[in-house]
Specification:
The chain is α/β, with parallel strands linked by helices. Helix content is about 30%, strand content about 15%. The chain has two domains: about 5-100 and about 290-320, Rossmann fold (3-Layer(aba) Sandwich); about 105-280, Rossmann fold, CATH 3.40.50. Strand 4, helix 4 (about 85-90) and strand 5 form a beta-alpha-beta unit.
């Protein structure tokens, strides 16, 4: 059994990285490319591992799984969205993360989705490949009002890119201030104004119990029928059933989503039946450069932990729980 196990390396990007060689100085390393194996199989894979490098929520590490891994000390995750942090803390399993490694890739992806929807690029391409000549009328971004729901790290990166298109930026978020909005060249507006005024609305709310189903039927009803909705948020911030209904009724001009919940997405999800949609399979973050940054930081997090100087720890309380710890 390996001391360090890499899970979910479907594209073999981590396997190709020379960064992993650094881990061999502290233990044996094994790499798996399967995504979301059954719990029993996962426990067998991770049996006796001291550290797990988990890629972007591709491996669910719930309470029962973590409880079945008595030797596990560290989960170095590139996005700990499917790790039971409370359980890990109670068990003394440290979880680290890789902040900001995917900001560039995600922000670029959002701009790509906006352009594809605004100019009907995918539909036109598909028609041509079916030997149909169907040019479609889109709209200019210049002069349009783009709303950003949640002007955090990624929302701010999107704002910087969109300024080059000459858009009018507005923003709202539960903790956003006029000063922070102005720092991103956006006007701070009310929640209602954001939904009513946006020609394009990009959703970047951080997931919490308060943000679940935040973009619901009542808020979608405030939007212009000519508006586009872009959603790369985690989990269930946008209610897909409500969005599907709005699109089918013609109350929105289009929507683009980077689907990431559940993983993989249920292929019977109603969003697949919605018209005027552009959907991608949890790939907004996925660039060669993101993989490089994530690998480097994950490896550094593992080395730092086993040198007795943990960094980028999500659950510092885990360090207080009795479990075999590395010596500095």
């Amino acid at each position: 059994m390996a001391d360090i196990v890499v899970c979910g390396d479907q594209e073999h990007e981590f396997q190709r990285s020379t960064e992993l060689e650094k881990l061999e100085a502290i233990g044996s390393v094994e790499i798996y490319d399967s995504i979301d194996p059954p719990r029993e199989q996962l426990i067998e894979i991770l049996h006796q591992a001291r550290a797990v490098l988990e890629i972007r929520g591709r491996t669910a590490l719930g309470r029962e799984t973590l409880t079945g891994l008595p030797d596990l000390q560290l989960v170095a995750s590139t996005g700990p969205h499917r790790i039971d942090i409370e359980a890990a803390s109670a068990l003394g399993i440290v979880v680290t993360t890789t902040p900001a490694v995917s900001t560039v890739g995600v922000a670029d992806h959002v701009c790509g989705l906006i352009l594809c929807l605004a100019r009907h690029i995918v539909n036109a391409n598909n028609a041509l490949r079916e030997r149909r000549w169907e040019p479609q009328t889109g709209f200019d971004l210049e002069g349009k009002t783009v709303g950003i729901l949640g002007l955090g790290r990624i929302g701010s990166a999107v704002a910087r890119r969109l300024l080059g298109f000459g858009v009018n930026l507005i923003a709202w978020g539960p903790t956003l201030t006029p000063e922070r909005a102005a720092a991103s060249s956006a006007q701070f507006v009310s929640e209602e104004t954001l939904f009513r005024s946006s020609d394009v609305l990009s959703v970047h709310l951080r997931y919490s119990p308060l943000s679940q189903d935040f973009v619901n039927a009542s808020r979608l009803a405030l939007m212009k029928p000519t508006a586009l909705l872009i959603d790369i948020s985690r989990d269930v911030v946008v209610n897909r059933k409500a969005l599907t209904a709005a699109l089918k009724a013609g109350r929105l001009a289009g929507a683009a989503m980077d689907l990431c919940h559940p993983l993989p997405v249920d292929m019977n999800d109603p969003i697949f039946e919605a018209p005027r949609t552009l959907l991608t399979p949890h790939m907004a973050w996925q660039t060669a450069e993101t993989f490089q940054r994530a690998t480097r930081m994950s490896v550094d997090n593992i080395l730092a932990y086993f040198s007795g100087q943990p960094v980028n720890v999500v659950n510092p309380d885990a360090l207080k729980v009795s479990r075999r710890r590395p010596r500095p």
